[in-house]
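Dear V.,

Thank you for sending over the compound details. I've combined the ligand you provided, magnesium ion, with the protein sequence from our construct and run the structure prediction for the complex. I'm sharing the raw inputs here so there's no ambiguity about protonation or stereochemistry in the SMILES, which I know was a concern on your side last time.
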Amino acid sequence: MTTDVAVEARNAVKAFGQGETAVRALDDVSIQIRKAEFFTLLGPSGCGKTTLLRLIAGFETPTSGQILLDGKDITNDPPNKRPVNTVFQSYALFPHLSVAQNIAFGLEMLGRPRAEITKTVERMLALVKLEAMAGRKTSQLSGGQQQRVALARALAPQPKVLLLDEPLSALDYKLRKEMQLELKRLQTETGITFIFVTHDQEEALTMSDRIAVMSAGHIQQIGGPREIYTRPVNRFVADFIGETNFLSGEAGEGRVTLASGDVVQVEGAEGRKGKVTVVIRPEQVRLAEAGAAETIPATVESLVYFGTDTHCHLRLKDGTEMVARLQSPASGEAGLQQGQSVGLRFAPGAARVLED
Amino acid sequence: MADRSFSASRLPGFTATAIFVFIALYLPILMLVIGSFNGGESIGAWQGFTLSWFAKAWANDHVKDATIRSLVIASLAAVISTTVATMAAIATTRRRPFRGQTFIYLMINQPLMVPEIVTAVALLIFFASIKVATGYQGLGYLIAAHSAFCVPFAYLPIRARLEGMDLTLETAAADLYASPWLTFRRVTLPLLLPGIIAGMMLAFVTSLDDVVITLFVKSAGQDTLPTYMLAQVRRQISPEIYAISTVLLALTIVLLTLFFILTRKKD
Ligand SMILES: Nc1ncnc2c1ncn2[C@@H]1O[C@H](COP(=O)(O)OP(=O)(O)OP(=O)(O)O)[C@@H](O)[C@H]1O
Ligand SMILES: [Mg+2]
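Below is the predicted structure of the protein with magnesium ion bound, written out as structure tokens.
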């Protein structure tokens, strides 16, 4: 069934330049984005997020492959023929028009009747809480307000899909948090498919229904925030999303022997043989008394206080370094001391084996 | 220790040179302007304030004809050259770089580099053959010639404005369902307008001021203000000419001031 798919990219390739200097910004990307979904493209700078958005918006045509909207091939439609709107990173508000005129622009281009335009603009202004600013020039607005105008302008024509290219990156921390909630609210209220680009993994995890992690023009993994965080499919994803400990070891008989010689039970080790990498999130590392049963011996190298958490840097017998994230004790005193010997174990089901 | 960083104003003779240049530039103009308000005919002696030279010049039918002709030519040439320049500027900035772009850029700006006298002679010969072929003797030749050499003057400020414009604005318009034409009319053109007006004013002033090409191209009885003044000055210098010059100067100053206001970078 494809009826619940809003946007689809099929084997999309985008190469810039020719011959030796050609850059494959997107290399055979296939992806299906569902209707009414908050979908996030996440990846480091230069991985092709913007390029994928531009292909969907129609600002670029793919070198090969197809873009489909509601099952219809739109690969060669110009941007003005696509029911898709964009919130630009730089906002790109028209400086010669007022706030209300900016919001009305798309509707006017679609030839909607005057009365309808006026009504929709009012509704949009209310939606982004800018009723009082309708007549202002956009240059007289703060960054957060401009951001809201850009959003209202893109939402006004009721597109099937809204594309947002790092719309929050120019805002300060507090405003960004506010706008994250606001965006999520707008998406739920309007039921429009949002495709959101960010390189901030925390933003991606808190806002998205699903996330595509990209790197170097490829999609590494697509899944819900929990799945991406707890079950990264490869080392890149595990490393890019949150902090992770990587431990090398040898798999055999359903268990893994770490480089330190300690043997651990790890999910995904069944049926594997040879060199593997075990990943474990710092918050899933538990500390116990030195020598406690089923623990790995380690030494506390240093403690870094982060408020709610304390990061405990550990060293295993063979010199492997690890980090454990512990809840700071209420007294404010460190229960641990530098140089102390401890035993560590992994929370049940938390450690996983990855192929490199 | 005093600030030792380089400053041209501390080179020996800087101040003296600057003063000399300003005097050489502006003293003759100042004398001419004063002369146009002088009661007597001699520029050497002040004989009381008068506006009679202005009145006399305006009463002169030759001056009136030449003025109207100059304004007609300059207005039409400004409009035509600005239209061409706008299209050329958009074509050279709103697309991927193409082979021969530099060549086209040079071609557009050719009137700035080819000696004017060469263009003048070429046009004389070219138009002469057309005159023979068609029998047409009107102002069209002057308007065509002025339109052509004004293009680069109109082109440069328009191109500068286009290059400073945020391209994502046009992308945003297309994203919001504007066809290429509507994108141009509703976004590019309004934002370009200050550049277009500036270009038009520059073209207007350039045309108004032209002597060389006009002299070569004009038919009998087609004097513009500058060629009329040249002809007069050859015979006898009258304060009437000073008065006309002062008016031209005033007009140019007004237009150039507007030009700077329009091309000034805002905030
Ligand atoms: N017009 C272009 N011409 C040549 N190369 C380009 C062009 N646009 C993008 N690229 C290249 O394609 C790759 C992907 O770029 P893209 O803008 O999609 O990255 P991104 O994931 O959006 O990065 P960022 O997080 O920095 O915005 C980069 O290597 C970039 O240099
Ligand atoms: Mg980008």
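A first observation: The interface with chain A takes residues 166, 168-169, 171-179, 182-183, 186-187, 190-191, 267 of chain B (CB under 8 Å).

Warm regards,
I. M.
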